[in-house]
Amino acid sequence: MAIRILVHVLLPAFLSFYTCKGQDTSVSPLSPMKKKEQETLYSVIQGFIGKGWNGSDLYPDPCGWTPIQGVSCELYEKYWYVTVLNLGPVFDNSLVCTHDAQFPDEIFKLKHLRILSLTGCFLYPTQNPVRLPISNWENLSNSLESLHLRSNPGLVGTIPSSFGCLRKLQSLALIENGLIGELPSSIGNLVRLRQLVLSGNHFVGEIPLHYMGLFELLIFDASRNNLSGALPSTVGLLDSLLKLDLSNNLLEGELPRELGRLKNLVLLDLSHNKFRGGLTGPLQELVSLQHMVMSHNPIRGDLFGIQWEFFQNMETLDFSDMSLTGSVPESMTKMKRLRYLDLSNNNLSGCLSVSLENMPSLRALHLNGNKFTGKLEFSERFYRKMGRRFTAWDNANDLCYIASSMTAWIQVPYGIVVGGDVGWTVPKDQDFFDDWASRNRFLVNDTLRFEYKTDSVIEVNEEDYNKCKAMRPLFFSNNGDTVFTFDRPGLFFFISGVSGHCGRGQKIVVKVLDSHSPPPQHQNDDQHSGAAVIAPLAKTTSVLLVVSSFFLLLFAA
Fold this sequence. Notes:
Elements: H1 2-17, H2 35-49, E1 71-76, E2 79-87, E3 115-119, E4 130-131, E5 146-157, E6 171-182, E7 195-197, E8 202-205, E9 219-221, E10 226-230, E11 243-245, E12 250-254, E13 267-269, E14 274-276, E15 291-293, E16 316-318, E17 325-326, E18 340-342, E19 347-350, E20 364-366, E21 371-372, E22 374-376, H3 380-386, E23 390-391, E24 399-402, H4 403-406, E25 416-417, H5 432-438, E26 442-443, E27 447-451, E28 457-460, H6 462-467, E29 475-477, E30 481-485, E31 490-496, E32 507-513, H7 525-528, E33 534-536
Parallel strand pairs: 2-3, 3-5, 4-5, 5-6, 6-7, 6-8, 7-9, 8-10, 9-11, 10-12, 11-13, 12-14, 13-15, 15-16, 16-18, 17-19, 18-20, 19-21, 20-23, 22-24, 25-27, 26-32
Antiparallel strand pairs: 1-2, 24-33, 27-30, 28-29, 28-31, 31-32
């Protein structure tokens, strides 16, 4: 009798604990899933991960007590329906797609599907190319809110115009796939869209004017494609934008005046394009900017057309390789939060103000490859603070420095090339960079050289390295030829800044040993008995590192 009472009392409480939040509390996890919905789900999963999966270990169905990782359900009229489908190596126990995965048509029968995310499901564009379906997307028009297709180089074809029927879509991310063709104007019909990311594909043509009606858009990223033409003047209508990234395309022309209307913009990256016409006045109206990257454009002109003191939120400013002329305005030293300033590989001239040293947040200053003259009068404390993040080589021969203050801290411009002939890119073998590093020995003051085209290098801590994330970057560069000097013994962690590359093996950890030998002295130091020496800061020679088998391997979790 006591046992029977406990069953009557505790079982209803136990079942009520598993009910869906916000749903009918009279329905338990034993609520049924219609057979048709279950068969459709199983068919979809088998299309991605293979026929060997049959869900036989799920009780009583995929949304009961033993749910599938990456699959979520909600109750509609007391029946379970699939609302989330997330496949790929996202979680430790996620369902991972098979090498011959397909894009099953049955997916369009999941009428309550709100979120669809496929990561790393189609990896083989030659052996197993899978075409993105061009029809049936209208079947999800009343439900789909988020569509993410990421790191699928074997997913080919064009963006279907029927995407324009997904009227509830708020997030569309097509990242690092094999998609081609022009961007369909029908995406401009998705008026609820808040995130539009199309990076790392092979899209061509111009940015459709119809996209400028996406007034709720917060993020627009079409980087690393082959888009051409001018930046539409109607871009100023996207006044909710927080991030605009159109880097690594073939865009050209002058920057439109209407760009200045994007008052909420936090990140602007237009690097690696063909923009020209100088730094326009509207840029100084973007007072919320924290990161502005304009490098590798034939912009030309000087730095005096902008009142830099207005940028009190600016943290990153990359103006490298822009054919800029003139001197560095004193007003640039008024940006109190600026952490990273890159003016390298321009035609800048004149003397450098010692006020640069007084910028309270500055942690990286790159001035190499210009025509600066005069004497660098920064203090030894400044050079010590900047370390490897200060570069001033390859200027005019009459740019001088005080050797006794700077010799031990100056950045060496060359070093051993990471990855050898392969360079800094996604490796065919995930252990490639670890194997490469194990064949080299590194000491304090040695340098690494990262060579790449459309990529970047980020130094992170060990936690972010293991997670392939850059939540707290220690160093960042995307200039295509990054030199990094080890200023201390210990471990250094580097990852690619391009989404998905780190997870595919583009990361490296380096152990640096303490050097017991004193740093090299200037050739004239013995003649001056420690007195300050004025010497030209010219290009130094590279040092060939002796190959040795000493290294500590760390693997990402």
